[in-house]
């Protein structure tokens, strides 16, 4: 079943068109990797799907569970099950990770007309999930991302994803700035969240992440369009030949 359908999407910032007729279909249970050079529109696509302000969609449509995603505000999309893990998670001094997670989870439940978690139930839940991802409880008491290493920030994004249980997870260069040990830990957390009901879009420049996260489909973006799709062998081809072949085609 198609969870996400992007059709003939033209979009950008002000008068600068970045996406130029992009098409993409992601089915439930699938992991799609999107690769491409800087400026190809990968992050723009993730921001538009998640509802980040500042982008203009001129034509095209995005359907999520057969609903018009572009008609929803960012918080509505999150409540429907869209999650974006940021390339550069922000630091929020004065707000502990625990309080942030509780506010996010209860806001989601409130939007879905569900009862908020009590403090004991929330603490039990977050500790269980953190333990499953090998995240020390001390991290939960620190300011959100304040003083965190790159690996800690990305693992915190995976913790949020595990707690919110989205239907569509968009991971925007989750491997950026990670050493090999942190990359393995983050990949293990992502793999633990794979589900027949959940789809993931993994945006990356490099094949190394795909050594740990086995994608169902690999797409190559160039100049605002998906130029080629295939299996993991496509990532190997890119590593050997680079993106120049697709830049020329564009």
UniProtKB/TrEMBL annotation:
One Pfam family, short name: ABC_tran
Nucleotide-binding in keyword set: yes
Keywords from the UniProt entry: ATP-binding, Nucleotide-binding
Segments forming domain AAA+ ATPase: 28-225
InterPro entries per record: AAA+_ATPase, ABC_transporter-like_ATP-bd, ABC_transporter-like_CS, FeS-cluster_ATPase_SufC, P-loop_NTPase
Membrane spanning residue stretches: none
Family, similarity comment: Belongs to the ABC transporter superfamily. Ycf16 family.
Job description of the protein: Involved in beta-(1-->2)glucan export. Transmembrane domains (TMD) form a pore in the inner membrane and the ATP-binding domain (NBD) is responsible for energy generation.
Protein name: Fe-S cluster assembly ATPase SufC
Biological source species: Bradyrhizobium brasilense
Lineage: Bacteria, Pseudomonadati, Pseudomonadota, Alphaproteobacteria, Hyphomicrobiales
